[in-house]
Structures are given as structure tokens and as C-alpha cells.
Amino acid sequence: MNIFSSKSRASATVGVQPVGSAASSTMVGSSRTDLLESSLGGYTSVPPPVLLANGNGVAAPHADLDKVAILDAGSQFGKVIDRRVRELNVYTEMLPLETPLAVLLERGFKAIIISGGPASVFAEDALVYDPALFQSPIPVLGLCYGFQLMNTAYGGMVGKTARRNDGQTKIEVDQNSLLFKKMDTIQEVLLSHGDSVTIVPNNLTVIAKYNDLVVGIANVEQKKYGVQFHPEVDLTVNGMQIFRNFLFEIAGLRANFLMANREQECLNYIRSHVKSKTVLLLASGGVDSTVCAALLRKVCSPDQLIILHIDNGFMRKNESLQVVESLKKIGLKVIHRDFSDRFRYARRRRPEEEDGADYVSVVSPTLMETVDPEEKRKIIGDTFMEVANVVLKEDLKLELNDVLLCQGTLRPDLIESSSKMASQHSEAIKTHHNDTNFVRQLRARVRTVHFASECLSECLPKPCVSVSSVSVCLRSPVDCV
């Protein structure tokens, strides 16, 4: 017997209005959110290969590119979804879940992916979204939270199950579904959810099951698909095939976002914002800052660049010297400063109040007395910003308003630190030294440069491990002490 041959009965929705209802033309969720066009940004199409940055911080592509909107529901894997799609040479932008369909249509997106997230679709404070997404001609793929949101939007029900499902497991998929084309019936996937679909409406078809649980649904005619699992992670063995099927078989997109687009996208972003200003880059010798240094060298003159390597006392033997020599080999002038003692005796900077008051130094254990890894990372991150400011002001005698700070941050750092550059709703896994609360507060104090977001999603394809995914953030330095 084919377990996917029948449909469950229709039901009333929980917490949202079903597709086609009278209320489906308005925003749905815990409260209506006014979406300012300035928060979403606009873009200008220009002749290739020039790619300018829009107000949302993402470089706008040439109009001929097929584009996918990734709507963020708070997933810690949001940037991984972005990466996976771009690995298939399809351009992406991450936008808030509450982005109206009208904005997506105006920008010319040809497919939508709704991410997972920690919230419940039936909670009183459920995330705001536009139910018109599921009435539009644009193909939609809902993942985890997006899967449950789709089910409720069509009139189904979601509820708590006896226990959570967390981990890699085997499910059964419908091979007749385009979403699972060229895939075996039994698939290994990552399930991570506490809520489950309990009733599937008549206007959706079940296309995947885990025992008695529904983990895949579709409305084939409207090109709307949803899965409870995470195809973006490696634990879903054939996740990339699922993305291929959705992007190319279902949405009919072209793989026309090529390497030349990506490099030029970043170089033009840097060129348009740096102009004639001096740029200060804190270079650790790692992938992220080294990529930033290499890209800056392509755009800026040597006199514009100040590459600063700070020895924090935790480097391997002679590693700092090796970092400096390696950067010099690619034509960069490097300033090397040893602040080992400063780091060893550094203390955590804490807010006086929990409501976001200014950060001040307080009497607390020094770094070398601290045991908790989370606390150590915060101390190191805060101290990096302090000593960088010391070098900037005391050694280099620079005017703050004439200098930009270039910061490179790997995707995992943004995701794990719950950075707003990665997601608007996700929860932190751990703090990274380049994304502490103090660093974020300094970013908010920018006085002359009012942009802060990703320039580059990936510099080279996955096999090129020498240069990995980075985000480039150009900011004006501010006083740290």
C-alpha cells in the first residue's frame, strides 16, 4: 500500500488564517508589524559586472539573475541554507519572515525558502508573516518551522507530540514527488522538532513520513512544498539533491550566479564604500581576515591599508611571526604588536544595567583566572577592541572619522553568536570573540559610516578550502575606552 496515496481531512487552523480565507490579505501573527522600505532596502540594476550594495547590505545582482528569497524564521541554519543554494549557483537574499509578498514580487524573486526556527506556529507570540505567500505563483519550500507554517496556512493543524525528535533518522519519501526526484524511498535526514503536523488539510498531499508522523507535504499545482527536516545540513544525506529538485525541477530557475559575479559583487561593495579612506584590518592569520586582506589589496592602494596583527599571547610558538611573513608575501604591509600581558590580565566588561547601559570595566577575575569558556571568549573579544583602539589612537595618530575598520567573520561565527547579520530571531549557541555584546555596542555607535552587513557570501566554491565563506563588514572605529 502506498502511504502517500491518501490525504488527511481538512481542519480549522490554529493561530493563523488558512489560505483563501477573508483575512489572508493581511499580515498574520502575534501583532501587525509596520515594514519600512528602508529596513528592507532597494536595489538598482546596472550593467554587468558592476554589482552595487543595497540598503539591506546585500549586493544587488544584475536583473538577469534568477533570485531566491530566504525568509528568516530564526533558524541557526539560515546561513547554511543560503550557502547551499549559492553552491548551486543561484543568487539568494535573506529577508525577515514578515516581508510582504508585494515586496518579493517587486524585487523579482522567482522562488522562496522559509527557514526553520525555535518558535511554535500556534504560540500567542507567533511570528508575523504574509499568508499571501501561499496564494502566489512563486514556488515555496518550507523547512521545519516553514513546513509547519505552510500546513497551518492551508488549514491544517500542528501540535505538541509525546517527545521531541532530535537527530539523524530514516524516513520514507514519495518517489513520485518532484521534490524527491532521483532519490530512494528511504532517506536519512536530520529531524529536530518538538511540534509536529497532526492534521493535513485536503489541499495538501503527504509526500514524506517518519513512522506515523508527517514530515513532508505538497500542493503540486501551486508549487508549494514543505519538509519537517533540514536538507541544508550534512546529516540529511541527499539534502543538496532536494535543493536541486526544488530550484531547477520545480521552480525552473537557472544556475547563473557564477564566480565572477561573486568576486565582483564584493570588490564593488568595498570600492563603493572605501573610496579614498584609510582602512584598518585586524588580521589574525585565519581564513576570514586573510580573505578580507586579499580582497582589500585588489581594490585599495598600499597607502590606504593598515594591516594590524595583535599577538594575544595564545598563539602557537612563532605563529605570529609566521602570520606576518605570510601576509607580507601577498604584498601587504603588516604592523605587529604584542599585547600578551594586556590579555592575560584583562577583565570582562559588563553593563551596569541589564537595559543596555554603557559597558564599564568592573572588578572581576582576569582572563588567566577565568575557567568558563564562554566568559573567556567575551574577555578576549572585548580586549581585542580595546587594544586595537590603543594602536589606532596612540601609535598611528589617526583621525577616527577618516578610518574604516574592516572585519571578516565566518558564517559559523555569525550563526553561533546569534548575530543579527545571520538571523533576526535565532538563539545563541556560543559567543565568538568578534561578536560580543561590547563589539555589537561599538558597531551601533558608528558616527560617519551607516552600513553594516554582508558583502560576500562565499569567495570560492566549497572545494577551495584555502578561502572560505566570509562576511565583510566595513565600519568606522569608535572609542573603546
Structural features, described:
- The protein has 12 helices and 16 strands.
- Helix 6 packs across helix 7 (287-299).
- Mean pLDDT is 75; it is low at 6-18, 20-25, 30-59, 352-357 and 446-481.
- It is of the alpha/beta class and 481 residues long.
- Helix 2 (78-87) links the parallel strand 1 (67-72) and strand 2 (91-96).
- The strands form 3 sheets. It has a 9-stranded mixed beta sheet, with helices on both faces. A 5-stranded mixed beta sheet has the order 12-11-10-15-16, sandwiched between helices.
**How big is the Rg?**
24 Å
Strand order of the largest sheet: 2-1-3-4-9-8-7-5-6
Give the total of beta strands. 16
The average pLDDT score comes to 75
The helix/strand class is alpha/beta
Order of helices and strands: HEHEHEEHEEEEEHHEHEHEHEEHEHHE
Question: What percentage of the residues does DSSP assign to strands (E)?
Answer: 15-25%
Tally the helices.
12
Largest sheet: 9 strands, mixed
**Helix percentage range:** 25-40%
Concise description?
The protein is built from twelve helices and 16 strands.
What is this structure's SSE topology?
Blueprint lengths: L36 H4 L26 E6 L5 H10 L3 E6 L4 H7 L3 E4 L25 E4 L1 H9 L3 E17 L12 E14 L5 E6 L2 E7 L4 E4 L11 H12 L8 H16 L3 E5 L4 H13 L5 E7 L7 H11 L4 E5 L1 H5 L2 E5 L7 E8 L6 H23 L7 E7 L1 H6 L20 H8 L26 E5 L6
Helix pairs in contact: 6-7
Question: Which key phrases capture this entry?
Answer:
481 residues; alpha/beta; nine-stranded mixed β-sheet; 12 helices; 26% helix
